[in-house]
Amino acid sequence: MRASGYAFALALLAAAPVAPALAQNPFGTGPYDPAVPTPRAVLGYELGDRFTPHYLLSRYLDRLAATSRRIRVDTVAHTFEGREVYSVVVTSEANMARLPALRADMARLADPRGASPAELAAVVQRAVPAVWLGFTVHGGEASGVEAAIALLYQLAAGQDADTRMLLDSLVILIDPLENPDGHERHVEDVTRARGMLGVPTSPDAMVHQGSWPGPRTNHYYFDMNRDWFIQSQPETRGRVATMLAWWPLVAADLHEMGSGSTYYFAPPMPPVNKNVASDIVQWWDIFGRANAAAFDRHGWSFFRHEGYDEFYPGYGDSWPILMGSVGMTFEEAGSEGGAIRRDDGTVLTLREAAWHHYTAAWATLLTAARRVREKTQDFLAYRQSAVSEGERAPLRAVAIERDPTGRADSLAARLLDNGIEVQRLAAAADVAAATLYGDTLARPAHLPAGAYVVDLAQPMGRLARAILEPDAQLDSSFIHEELERRRTGQDSRFYDVTAWALPYAFRVRAWALRAVPPRTEPVALAGLREGAARPAPPPRATYGYAIRPGSEASLRMLAALLADSVRVWFAPEAFTQGAGRFPQGAFVVRVAANDARVHDIVRRCQAESGADVVALASALADSGTDLGSNSVFPLKPPRVALVGGAPVSGNSFGFAWYAFEQRLGFPVTTIAAADLAGASLEDFDVLVVPSVSPGRMDATLGERGRRRVADWVRAGGTLIALDGAMAWLASEPLDLARLRPRDDSVRADSAGGAPLPDDVPGAIVRVTADTLSPLLAGVHDPDFAVLMNSDRIYPAPHDLRAGEAVVRYAALPRLRLSGYLWPEVPPRLAESVYEWTESVGRGRVIGFAGDPNWRDHWRGLLPLFANAVFIGPSM
Description:
A hairpin with a 2-residue loop joins strand 19 (575-577) and strand 20. The protein has 25 helices and 34 strands. By secondary structure, the protein is of the alpha+beta class. It is globular, with a radius of gyration of 28 Å. It folds into four domains: 5-387, Aminopeptidase (3-Layer(aba) Sandwich); 393-527, no CATH class; 544-635, no CATH class; 640-874, Class I glutamine amidotransferase (GATase) domain (Rossmann fold, 3-Layer(aba) Sandwich).
């Protein structure tokens, strides 16, 4: 760093606008190019008067692109509801004419390996780097869209010196609406609730309430500010691709928080991920002081170092940090429906909120432009040090063994999508010191040929380390402070989960290595993309077709067959026939039991899914159980209802909905919880209840609804309860399971002796499974990992029967794998139940103590959920 960040920030005061001018740009300063239309000319209202819907944003972007040579509008994705996700490229006309060269320069700095110091120095001096600004990733945090429109007009039409300097110095990437589907829900809710005479400011007014589950999330109710390395959603994939194409020096993600707050910008509060480099911390202070100076110009309040951490690597600012950008979250107090009375009696309007965001964004751009050479040099140094530090680190590489179900292939593809280099062992290798994930000691290991290897000494090494390392390190001082805060009744600073290691989440066998094994070759994404390489179709079968279980492809094929009313049998025992070897839990389609279309249906479903299907000549097994055995039972094609609406968790509902439609391709009917009492439950075989508060669920159903659900189960239905809904399943009022939640608590020694909160902030723990259970079809390793993310614990009942405790948490010495557990939690959690099943009358209940579909992160748990749906009703 060459100059004081604060001294530089003070210099920005002269450039900051004193008051908004409504004539053209309500927040910026002219003069303006008259050929470029103002927002009012296209939208029909002043910015801040109302929320701008996606179609009007699109219209305005089209007009800007048509009238300003500084603007290029790229569509980087389409949402599940069909709306465009934009990345608007803004720079000077001269720069616009040479964008490929500008991108090539940044790509050279992003991977400096093999370049001479002179070459890199020349690129640093001539580069015109990018700055990324993203707005409204949470749909109801809607002032960002209005600020983005104002900023785009200023950059497209402004003729002042500062605007021209920004355009000459930078390529500005603006994502004006990160979450089009969620934002559209917000706009529609507000439009319906808003009166003709304006927005009522009472916090209790309907205009501020919205509809279930709120506009924060996208179509499948995913929080996309947690999706950056998971990349389950198309919006995120398009956004990450933009980052990897441009390598921006700065990435600011503009959000909203509660209306009673002021404005937050970096530096963040603890904890900070240990993979964040020290120069990023220094830049946080520089940008924070620049923003403070801009806000001081208006007398606006703000804060730093509170409320928002930088530990989880999947935030919209965290992921860019780990690739070398100065990633920052900005948080503006929300205006809710457009104007809301706050606790201090003031009224915050949409226009004011947008002005605050505009001011922070403008100060950020000015800071980046005026220190562009210094920041470009630091970006280069960041990428170089990722390689050099990776070479010296105790964790040098991660090896991932391939598996027959393709989970390791999916993980490798995910890493490549994140811009992380992946290699493959050309031949088996013996390594002297390797620590198997789940173990603590390094031992000699034999790595099989074809295993994937991620060398962390690469330019994206910090991101690779952050999402692959077995255990993200928390400062002991932070933990000590958290324990004291907890004891004295203060709020926890844990903001999200404390564990996320992808090898655990994908349920793959992986090793932490101290050195890179020899004879590796690079892996290309094209050869790994899910569904790219598909097995050959099976020949026409005489007896039937067998599908090996456990892979997502086999689950998709099973789902397609059942949805098409094909009769499928489940073989709980392993068998062989000819060259075909089938583990426990294979699915069998008998030709004689289906109509003449079965051969064509099997071939079509196999081609679409990519499943491994073998033609069977006979029911005779060469070894194992014959396929006509009574132990081989038919699967009922389930008619599935997914319960949603208040009070069900929108996130958990969305995770399950996404799993059904996007991972399994199986149709479900969504039913509101409030309608269960009167619903025609006899139309369904399976009822999936996502996470929900037991008390709120009981209040919503009432006595009549609870009795209706219980009677339906006893008559033959299958109830599947996820996460918090398992506590409802295990409750006495419902009376469907013998399982009960543990209800004791640890008392504090102060704060009035109140119980200490023991809600686990997202840790990874080991479980042990009954692999003989049909619900574990395709899951052959009895030990694997799950996420513990609540305070709900279910001890096994004393009268436990065989097959009921399908998955249990491991014994205490082997329990914790990654992340933080409060001190008293492990002995209470050990050997309690994770997955439970119990027959009730002619029906069945299945409960999961966690959410196997959580964020689409835990891909290794998809078979558990799918088996509950497809096999559970037939057990």
